[in-house]
Amino acid sequence: xxxxxxxxxxxxxxxxxxxxxxxxxxxxxxxxxxxxxxxxxxxxxxxxxxxxxxxxxxxxxxxxxxxxxxxxxxxxxxxxxxxxxxxxxxxxxxxxxxxxxxxxxxxxxxxxxxxxxxxxxxxxxxxxxxxxxxxxxxxxxxxxxxxxxxxxxxxxxxxxxxxxxxxxxxxxxxxxxxxxxxxxxxxxxxxxxxxxxxxxxxxxxxxxxxxxxxxxxxxxxxxxxxxxxxxxxxxxxxxxxxxxxxxxxxxxxxxxxxxxxxxxxxxxxxxxxxxxxxxxxxxxxxxxxxxxxxxxxxxxxxxxxxxxxxxxxxxxxxxxxxxxxxxxxxxxxxxxxxxxxxxxxxxxxxxx
Amino acid sequence: xxxxxxxxxxxxxxxxxxxxxxxxxxxxxxxxxxxxxxxxxxxxxxxxxxxxxxxxxxxxxxxxxxxxxxxxxxxxxxxxxxxxxxxxxxxxxxxxxxxxxxxxxxxxxxxxxxxxxxxxxxxxxxxxxxxxxxxxxxxxxxxxxxxxxxxxxxxxxxxxxxxxxxxxxxxxxxxxxxxxxxxxxxxxxxxxxxxxxxxxxxxxxxxxxxxxxxxxxxxxxxxxxxxxxxxxxxxxxxxxxxxxxxxxxxxxxxxxxxxxxxxxxxxxxxxxxxxxxxxxxxxxxxxxxxxxxxxxxxxxxxxxxxxxxxxxxxxxxxxxxxxxxxxxxxxxxxxxxx
Lengths: 352, 338
What we know:
Helix content of chain B: 25-40%
Mean pLDDT of chain A: 86
Mean pLDDT of chain B: 90
Distance between the termini of chain B: 37 Å
Radius of gyration of chain B: 22 Å
Number of strands of chain B: 12
Number of helices of chain A: 13
Structural class of chain A: alpha/beta
Low-confidence stretches of chain A: 1-9
Oligomer: heterodimer
Strand content of chain A: 15-25%
Order of helices and strands of chain A: HEEEEEHEEHEHHHHEHEHEEHHHEEH
Radius of gyration of chain A: 22 Å
Helix content of chain A: 25-40%
Number of strands of chain A: 14
Order of helices and strands of chain B: EEEHEEHEHHHHHEHEHEEHHHEEHH
Distance between the termini of chain A: 29 Å
Number of domains of chain A: 1
Strand order of the largest sheet of chain B: 6-7-8-3-9-10-12-11
Strand order of the largest sheet of chain A: 8-9-10-5-11-12-14-13
Low-confidence stretches of chain B: 333-338
Shape of chain B: globular
Number of helices of chain B: 14
Shape of chain A: globular
CATH architecture of chain A: 3-Layer(aba) Sandwich
């Protein structure tokens, strides 16, 4: 059976409108030794070419509905940032397709991408490296507006930049400053303003608050939520912080080793996590309250995600592993309420 | 006598024209086997404070005043040679990123044996036995095999366990850990927290943990110092501070956590930003961001702007705040008991 067909609606009711972003069977493999020198091996006196590849994104299916805030959560190296970059077209997929508003975007060239760039924007983790150090904040904001509206007069562009700075809570007088003169929180505000400058409808935010202090993190999260309410934005939000996810998300996708192991709306996922990895993650996330619950100890064995044979990606660390998990990769099991779990143990009822 | 006593410590970094006072008038004590947390936002001076305890200040920083006593012995006046007998030996450190802490060109075993040999006259065989024993203590699986491996062959969590094993090698009395779990994934972080807690209890080691993450500090420590702009604004039992913070800054920090608000609601934010240490406001450093700088009648409390607040006892903690002081002195005791 073709998994693309079985996941056509991803468990949502049939009358749900077409998703804004639709991802099917997405794969991304990175060559481990792109310099083409190291993979040469001598095997029994014969020269052999052994190419090793990292399977960063391994068959991801995803729908993002308009108005949703979909959070992708997972540990470092699980492929969540790669997924974000694939959707934005910053990386080319090895396999699979990405559609935006019904149109395939994964094989477009730079010029064909341009109309979509106005509709989808990205915010990066570290505003220090995502802002051009040689531009003032005003230039940073005016550049994308001028690029996408070449017919606008200067005063109109200037006016828009002023309005943006006011919207994100940056003093207009700061427009003449450079990135290094601003604090981390203010830089991130400018990065958000830049993303908003072309009036997008979809924003991909890759760990936008992870590099910030608690009090600044609250300010930036409020700003992102306000912007969503005022401009009817749709978010794809990448993070590893479960507290942020629980607060921000309407939908949550949990990733491990390039695959989505569980996807549900935020309330369901936090109330009834089903996948063993999601459970371990929730149990391990530190709570403010005094808790006596022992963290679920996962096994340490954590081989690098080099393209391997079949089997569940979580099998090395899963407490419920059996022969079937070693052998075949679990398919996504979708229940009526849209809760999606990829786990043999859940399917067979081995997990309580 | 406490194991470590810090008394009115003052640390400054001279610049061309003026001086940055990174740590101001900090006093605290650490008992044997106690786990102490230092929490604050970046730029609050918490790392400088921790490094200064062993005089590990990068130039041009210097200790401008105050005392640090370890088992009653003054550390601030010791020479580098004398300090070397304490560093690593009696007081060990764990840093944020285990992969940069470990030497990438040496096997795990070699690094462990080298640090033992640097501090003790010991045979290779004996050192090896001790190192393997420590690896087992931090629950490293198949330690003999890890011994021959290089840091890049281990996962981040395993590396941090090795770093902890190295810190434990010489049976120190104090471990100072600077953001020990920040670089790790949550599942690994929970394991490291459990491991550190267990080791400190078992070996009676005092632990000083620096972190910006209140949740981690809450799980790991018994007592807590909250720092703002170089000063301790609140110190007391961790649980008490988290459940009932007294200082407006601590309250703001806790209330800003996403956990404290219902999902999809606006978070409670502290207005403004932490001041740069070169331009700390007069009076209470927090007053420009504090909502209690005004009286209920809307008048500015002059004390907040003019005088640095002294720490007062409130509940089980000590709080440096004019507003808290006013509350304590004006509210009759009987009323407070109800």
